[in-house]
Amino acid sequence: MSVPVAGRAAPGAGASTWHAAWLPPAAFRALGARNVLVHGDGPLVDTVLDEVTQACARHGGRVWHSPPWDVDADLVLASRAAGPIANAAAEAARLGATPAVDGTGDGSLGDEGFLLARVDGVTVVLADAPAGLLYGLFHVVRLGAAAFDDDRPARRHQPALARRILDHWDNVAVHPVSGQVERGYSGGSVFWRDGAARGEPDRIRDYGRLLAACGVNAVTVNNVNVHDTEARLLTDRLDEVAGIADVLRPYGIRVHLSVTFAAPVVLGGLPTADPLDDRVRAWWAEATRRVYRRIPDFGGYLVKADSEGRPGPFAYGRDHADGANLLAGALAPHDGVVRWRAFVYDHRQDWRDRSTDRARAAHDHFAPLDGRFRDNVIVQVKFGPVDFQPREPVSPVLAAMPATRLAVELQVTQEYTGQQRHVCHLGPAWSEVLRFAPWGAAGDSIADVITRGGLVAVSNVGDDPFWTGHPLAQANLYAFGRLAWDPRLDPGAILDEWIGLTWLPVTMGDPELVRRTLHAIMDDSWRTYERYTAPLGVGFMVRPGHHYGPDVDGYEYTPWGTYHFADRDGVGVDRTRATGTGFTGQYPQPWSEVYESLRRCPDDLLLFFHHVPYGHVLHSGRTVIQHIYDTHFAGVEEVAAMRERWRLLAGAFEPAAHQRVAERLDEQLRCAVEWRDQVNTYFFRKSGVPDAHGRRIH
Ligand code: GCW
């Protein structure tokens, strides 16, 4: 039987109500059955030691931390700073592995890196800093028995990005519109409930542990829409933030806070929040000093300003650089950063005005400011120019600010990708973004662009027993962490890791069948979702407000700037320089030309960039209208097939997990049918063009 083991995942404690996700005790079997020597000291090394101790207690191995080391170790986890090990074989292994560190790069493993080597029958993990040892430990867990293969070559592992951050859109107080977690589909918040900190450190600790095991090293504990209660986390409610920081620290995770730009007014009683006002500057400096006094390793602030009604520098005639630099100045003495979101656009647009283009907004606002931001400002850019749609081009802002630290923001919470009721495995989508080369194949990729800023995502976690509502949505969280650690990883291989860690063969049965089935359901599920929703990159067509399910014209005549412009002749948004909004001009070559050209524009983004007649022939050889019909029929069939596949696994899992996914697949199919019928009917009625295959359209 293959089971994601229920029960408390963290070492030591008894059973609880949430699942172990990708760290069930059985995942530690290979490591826990061995003799393990841990060499080094400090809080994170203690975490390593705890983990190993629990694993060995469970699986029959033994652990040593201090002399006498009368052991033939199978695994040595050693901090290099701790010096020689007074055990001949372990020391020989340590020394044997060392040249592989010294021989490459700058001879250092950095703050978070580690070396994994196999020397004379001993597996060795070396690190220069305790966090590296922790990541090395989790890598050994990930490898399982393979970590002990004699032919394993020595390999250094270092994260490509130093900042790997999850933002929680969690409210402290339940908000009348957005609830406890804005765009949350996994129950309540793991941090807050009904206006107060939940005070459940076990669960937060388990969360931190899961995050560390996939590489995440920072968490923002409250929503970017900072309401009145949440604003006070910065001042008189700072203890609650510190409490969370204390619990996450042993897993190498730093805490960040979303703050309101109006804080000096709403919290400090000043008459202004003008970034150039000395009183305002002094207020932020003092507030920040207090934060660091209480949380010395505090990560920094996250700000949504002049966006969707949030306060910002515009009210004082200042720009985003003035605003961001104000907070950066307060944070700089403490080595903190401010992440300033580039998600700025006019949400009170007139739909009649074809010249305003929401896609242009971030670049229009931010590109001219390149070079003006202080060093500890990170401009955080949503991956696409509009808003986390299933398919968007990569934001041109990412190619327009070479003198600014940039981070990409992804959305793990599935606001626009099925709200964790639909299987939509996003690893492949994110991988495309990270590999995108804005200056052409020979130039840097997005992963290179964000080296100094990092990768950020909106978390999909809540207090749901499966953490993510849909048990298979855990894979998105895992994939985010792994891609942030190494953006070149293959998303299929990441999914395979997650499957191997999470769905463990516990007694009997056919783990390979489970693995194959999960791949068959998940690998292409993002494209399946795309097929039955808005076509060819045009986006939205979701129900306004909650954003679930189809409503083709739901946003068409609204102020939000998310239109498709379908009429009887054609569909799509003309964003060309020649005849449209000029958005294509925000890209460098070659994309500026590729997107501008009707002939060269990739099919999957055609309607994002061009308004075309229904009879326009795609590269695929099909007309746009026939593509719409075909993909919508195909998408539904694919979901039906997913559901069948899952059904075949009944009995292979703990019933609760199987049932939860089964119910959601029922809903996904219902919803996909709804999408298919509304979209196909809408375009049939608009265009009058029948389906070439005569299928039923209403
Ligand atoms: O997509 C929109 C969401 C809002 C969110 C906003 C943002 C937190 O619908 O709920 O607000 O993006 O990213 O700020």
UniProtKB/TrEMBL annotation:
Cellular component aspect of the GO annotation: extracellular region
Key words of the record: Hydrolase
GO molecular function, one term: xylan alpha-1,2-glucuronosidase activity
GO biological process, one term: xylan catabolic process
Keyword set includes Hydrolase: yes
Entry annotated with the keyword Hydrolase: yes
InterPro entries registered for this protein in UniProt: A-glucoronidase_C_sf, GH, Glyco_hydro_67_C, Glyco_hydro_67_cat, Hex-like_dom2
Domain of life: Bacteria
Residue ranges occupied by any Glycosyl hydrolase family 67 C-terminal domain in the UniProt entry: 468-695
Domain Glycosyl hydrolase family 67 catalytic positions: 156-467
Record's protein name: Alpha-glucuronidase
UniProt lineage: Bacteria, Bacillati, Actinomycetota, Actinomycetes, Micromonosporales
